[in-house]
Amino acid sequence: MWRAIVETALLFLTPFVAYALFHSLQLRWPFVRELWHGRVVSLLTIAGLLVAIVGVVTLGFSRLNQGAYVPAHMENGKLQPGRFQ
Predict the structure, then answer these.
(1) Mean pLDDT of all residues in 56-60
(2) CA–CA separation, 66 vs 49, rounded Å?
(3) What is the average pLDDT across 65-85?
(4) Mean residue pLDDT across the chain
(5) Greatest pairwise CA separation for the chain in angstroms
(6) How far is CA 82 from CA 1, 49, 67, 74, in A?
């Protein structure tokens, strides 16, 4: 559960980090209030939501090909670990 939350949060934060990195590469301090006005934050939020949605859909489709999960179970007196089959 935590993995899904962290992956989505990191995907959402990607445009904000890219914007700060862009200003850092231009030798400007990226955390000045004037650089983060309402329009910029709104556009970065929309971009972050789009990146997060596309990432979740992409990761969801890539995990469909793993097959069905077989949980850990006892077989002939030995514990067999869980796996995708």
Answers:
(1) 85
(2) 27
(3) 86
(4) 89
(5) 68
(6) 18, 34, 13, 11
The total domain count for the chain is 1
Cα–Cα distance, 46 to 59 (Å, whole number): 20
pLDDT digits (tens, 9 = 90+) for 9-47: 999 999 999 999 999 998 888 888 888 999 999 999 999
Phi, psi of 36 (to 5 degrees): -115, 50
**Which range of residues forms the domain containing residue 64?**
2-84
Q: How many whole angstroms separate alpha carbon 33 and alpha carbon 56?
A: 31
Q: Residue 67 phi/psi, 5° resolution? A: 90, -170
d(CA 10, CA 50): 13
Residue 60, pLDDT above cutoff 90: no
Amino acid at 26: Q
Distance separating alpha carbons of residues 13 and 17, to the nearest angstrom: 6
3-state secondary structure (DSSP) of residue 2: helix
